[in-house]
Amino acid sequence: MLEYLQDFSEVAHALMMFGGMCLFILFGVPIPVAVGLGTIIGYMLLDFPLLALSQAMYTGVEPFPLVTVPLFVLAGSLMEQGGMAKRIVGVAESLIGNIFGSLGLIAVLGCAFFAALSGSGPATTAAIGAVMIPSMIKQKYDPAFGGAIAAAGGALGSLIPPSNLMIIYGIVAEQSIPRLFLAGFIPGFIATAALMIVTYIIARKRGYIGVDRTFSVKKVGTALNHGKFAVIAPIIILGGIYAGIFTPTEAASVAVVYALLIGGVVYRELTIANIIDCLKITAMISGAVLIIVGPAKAYGELMSLLSVPDMLGEAISGVTESPFLILMIMAVILIVSGMFLESIAQIILLTPLMLPIVANLGVDPIVFGILMVISCEIGFLTPPVGVNLFVAARITNLGVDRISIAVIPFLLAYVVVLIIISAFPDLVTFLPNLFYGKYQY
After folding, report:
1. Same domain, residue pair 363 and 417
2. Total number of domains in the chain
3. Which of 360, 392, 358, 361 is nearest to 375 (CA)?
């Protein structure tokens, strides 16, 4: 009887914490503040000293690898302003011949290439979208379709390494960031292919003819020569990590220095004014990330203390014990919550609750990490918090509602990728196990 009452008390405390947080969000309180207030409710109910809350929040922002996030944001911004983005588009352009939807295919491929530089979905959307959306509109593409391509392709910035979301997940879940980076390659390739297939089908149906160019090895060679410094950047950054030359944090520092040298000295397109703009963008994005980390970490720890993961695990296992179906349930929860929560907050809040459940079923934490990242990518594309939608809307001068409708086929493509990696997890773990050996968890 006492055990039943204790369980009931823990459920009541957890519901009051969660309900309080949701209520604050509904009243328009900023999410980091709402999460912090919800955590304070939990501390007061449990009669914990608030000093412990400040200590828990500090441990959230303490991990040194968090420095990697603003560094990769800065590197991506510098590469965009320094001319690397348009040279990457030039390489993608040379690889796509005169076929239906060629400009859309170039945009997706360009996003995939730039994703290997930026680590950020919105940054990838902004960089490639600014170059490709006006070109697509000029070629009589529906502006909403062009914006949807850029938004969906930009989401690859969080799946193809380096990825800021993978870094955050690695810190929260205490997983190897290099392993997560390697795990993202094959799903990233599959997602790129899926987006290109959707783009081609829609373009063919609507009669968006190819641009006046044919594929030739000579054009590819010329484009690669012009964009060689942009193309080798991922090789330097990721190759250095896997060769053991530097850590992911050091790799982010190398990326910043490389972007400054190439954009400022080689291409001579990076000015002092550009650098100041990049620093402002980095400060805004990084500030938004770091301000949520502390409260969310404290919230997640308190939920774990209240045995919420165990209760959720028992509830879900009562429905099914199939790892595939449970991963699908998790994906649905993540996609729905991604409509209202920023991706960083999702990972920090939900990883401590969900990871123990799937780990008990024998699911590799790396596989679950990639599933979380793809689900968060879908969140980039769903209103009302879909960041990529707002970036694309700003470039196209359209309402978010029009781009939200146009992006639906691409959302379905990402859902297919989720199903594939959940059904065949070896696609995720193949490269990490090949390079580092099978991970014991």
Report:
1. yes
2. 2
3. 358
197 lies in the same domain as 300: yes
284 and 359 housed in the same domain = yes
User: Residues in the chain with pLDDT < 50?
Assistant: 1-6, 441
End-to-end, the C-alpha distance of the chain in Å comes to 36
Residue 163 lies in a domain: yes
Give pLDDT, residue 349: 81
- Of 384, 123, 373, 370, nearest to 255 by C-alpha is 123
pTM of the model: 0.85
Give the tokens for residue 232: 């080798």
> C-alpha angle with apex 55: 53 to 57, nearest 5 degrees?
70
CA 248 to CA 64: how far, in whole Å? Answer: 11
Residue 370 has a pLDDT of 95
Alpha helices (H) along 397-425: 400-406, 408-423
Give dist(CA 397, CA 414) in Å, integer: 25
Same domain? For 272 and 167 the reply is yes
Q: Are residues 29 and 78 in the same domain?
A: no
Question: Which residues contact residue 138 at a Cβ distance below 8 angstroms, ignoring those fewer than 6 apart?
Answer: none
Instruction: Let me know if residue 221 belongs to a domain.
Output: yes
Residue 42 identity (one-letter amino acid): G
Q: Are 21 and 169 in the same domain? A: no
pLDDT value of residue 439: 56
Tell me the residue range of the domain where 1 lies: 1-48
223-249: per-residue pLDDT in tens? Answer: 888 888 888 888 888 888 888 888 888
Handedness of CA 370, 176, 301, 2 (dihedral sign): positive
Q: Is 83 left (phi over 0), alpha (psi -120 to 50) or beta?
A: left
CA distance 295 to 59: 10
**39-64 tens-digit pLDDT:** 888 888 878 887 777 787 877 777 77
In this structure, are 128 and 7 located in the same domain? Answer: no
